[in-house]
Design a protein that fits this description.
By secondary structure, this protein is mainly alpha-helical. The chain has one domain. Helices cover 53% and strands 0% of the residues. It contains 6 helices and no strands. The relative contact order is 0.22.
């Protein structure tokens, strides 16, 4: 039997996106892991513009030792014309630490990411 994608409500999908972005912004994520996860999400169409901007900034992060993630994302958002973007929702210290791989699998299960769903 072919498993069909489950299409979540827009709010549920946006919450899942936020969880993924929060997880990718955690300082304990290695550069190599972050790059791998962002490649996996490269073809995803983010539901909200601020989610898209934050993801694009995360894709460009190369070294968190010289400049904190928040500063790099804020600088990228400003260059893209969003100098006053509120980043606290993505960078909050009390964001739950979640397994990025399972979050991406959940997003793929919605059918929102085309390609390999394994």
């Amino acid at each position: 039997m072919i498993e069909r994608p489950r299409f979540p409500a827009a709010d549920e999908l946006r919450a899942l996106e936020l969880s993924i972005l929060r997880a990718l912004c955690q300082p304990n994520v290695t550069e190599m892991a972050r790059q791998s996860f962002t490649r996996e999400l490269a073809d995803y169409r983010w539901q909200l513009e601020d989610h898209c901007i934050v993801f694009q900034a995360i894709q460009r992060i190369r070294n968190t030792h010289t400049s904190p993630i928040k500063e790099q994302i804020a600088a990228y958002a400003a260059r893209r014309g969003f100098p006053d973007m509120d980043l606290e929702a993505f960078l909050t210290a009390d964001a739950p630490r979640q397994d990025i791989e399972s979050l991406i699998r959940e997003l793929k299960a919605t059918g929102a990411i085309q390609g390999n769903t394994a």
